[in-house]
Write a structure and sequence with these properties.
- The complex is a heterodimer of chains A (137) and B (145).
- In chain A, 50% of the residues lie in helices and 6% in strands.
- Chain A has 137 residues and is mainly alpha-helical.
- In chain A, α1 packs antiparallel against α3.
- The longest helix of chain A has 33 residues.
- The two termini of chain A are 28 Å apart.
- With 145 residues, chain B is an alpha+beta fold.
- Classes of the chains: A mainly alpha (137), B alpha+beta (145).
């Protein structure tokens, strides 16, 4: 069965979704930059997303745990982000590990990549629209 | 967890830093206050921040695991400094004790100023995060245009 949206669009959609979550994680780190004992969180999804791109063409393997890699059709929409306490930090006097400069950089980078993904989806949509309207007529 | 979660988290950070700025302002304003409703000189106040897992409602907590990775910040307590007051020899002061000493608040102006700058910067960082989130939400409205 051919989908209306191709694999690239679906991958972009998954990445937009995951970047929203990453934005929330970074916002949480910034809000708690002065909270004693707060551990900065880090979120990884790039590896999981590229793995899901490969696994989507496979047959659907039933996983018994949510941690198992998603396979088969729809694997992209089931990619799980890995959120963990950032080990690569220095600890403050009060046990806080948030580095505001690093978080602001990550925030800006995430925002730019989010917008890039949205723009790419829009280009894909424009191509679809062009075809659907018989070459813009 | 939607994109507005990020905005709620950032606004909690802004509210907490504003609360902190208020206590710092109160400390600076009362640097020479010798009378308070509870008696004695003014005592320095300090806010206590606590990270709270962000969950929208009780129902969400029942269905999902609470999102412990995304935490808003909350002022759980305003701690009162227990340092001994500064004693100054001012026999003519109406609040002087029998030896002529007046108890003044033990507030270090430099410390308060440094805290104030720190709170302002933290507030600005939260504003930037909120703007980035808002930007993303507005960009997603452009989808399909």
């Amino acid at each position: 069965m051919a989908d209306l949206f191709d694999k690239t669009t679906r991958a972009l959609g998954a990445s937009v979704n995951l970047r929203q979550t990453r934005n929330n994680v970074i916002s949480s780190n910034i809000a708690n930059a002065e909270t004693p004992g707060y551990q900065a969180k880090k979120m990884d999804f790039e590896n999981a997303l590229s793995r899901a791109l490969d696994f989507e063409d496979m047959g659907n393997l039933e996983g018994s745990k949510p941690e198992h890699y998603p396979t088969g059709p729809g694997a992209l929409s089931r990619v799980r982000a890995d959120i963990y306490e950032n080990p690569d930090v220095s600890v403050n006097n009060d046990g806080n590990t948030v580095d505001v400069e690093r978080e602001m950089t990550a925030l800006a980078e995430n925002s730019i990549m989010y917008k890039a993904a949205i723009q790419l989806i829009n280009k894909k949509m424009a191509a679809l629209k062009y075809a659907a309207t018989d070459g813009g007529r | 967890m939607d994109i507005l979660t990020g905005m709620r988290v950032s606004s909690s950070g802004m509210a907490a830093q504003r609360m902190r700025l208020n206590t710092i302002a109160s400390n600076i304003a009362n640097v020479n206050t010798t009378r308070t409703p509870e008696g004695g000189p003014y005592r320095r106040k300090d806010v206590v921040f606590e990270a709270m897992p962000e969950a929208k409602s009780f129902g969400e907590i029942l269905i999902n695991q609470p999102q412990k990775d995304v935490a808003r910040v909350q002022v759980t307590d305003v701690a009162v400094d227990r340092k001994a007051p500064l004693m100054k020899y001012e026999p003519d002061h109406p609040d002087a004790d029998e030896n002529g000493y007046v108890a003044y608040p033990n507030i270090n102006m430099m410390e308060e100023m440094a805290n104030m700058i720190q709170a302002t910067r933290a507030y600005e960082a939260n504003v930037s995060a909120m703007n980035a989130t808002k930007d993303m939400a507005m960009t997603s409205l452009e989808l399909g245009r």
